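for the writeup, i need someone to sanity check this before i put it in the appendix. the sequnce is what the collaborator sent (i think, or maybe the updated version? ugh). structure was predicted straight from it, no edits. if anything looks off just tell me and ill rerun, i have time this weekend
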Amino acid sequence: MTDSGSAEQPHRPAFGEYATPEEQSRRAGRPLPPPVVHTPPTVLPVAQPAGPAEAAAERPAHPVDRVASIALLAYGLWNVITSIATFLNPSSLMATMMQAVGISATFSNYPQARVWGMVAGIVLIAGWIATAWWSVLRLRRGKLTWWLPVAGGVVFVALSSICMMIPFFTDPAVISFLNGQLQK
């Protein structure tokens, strides 16, 4: 087989080849289309997610929330200071607790009450510091914060109250009173 007529015939695309738009127009007898200028697609700048410092600047905290949070933290600090004074001298606190329950005997477990009073004071101080630190972080980020001093107060006052209940319920007068109540 000889290929004598191949020089005269135009090149035919093989499988997978395509004619350009200019070749298509020339073979179809149409005028050439205007040249297509390929421009790169326009890329719009995408806003990057803001970091913590930028987010705080974009989203200021509600002024009422800020005032309420600071007022609750100030009240909590006052409560911590006055409670520590009471916990370090538990004699009047324990006498008041015994009167409130209706126990006529006197409290005698003072050494243990002083130790647990110091523990309760440390719990309150650490709790207030942790609550204040977390509240400041949330206020800087513009998040709702008023609930945090309330929750911190509830949690840490409950923990310090448990600390003060330990010497109260281990006092011989209280144990005797509770045993008498159970036998009735």
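The chain has a mean pLDDT of 84. Residues 60-183 form one domain.
thx in advance!!
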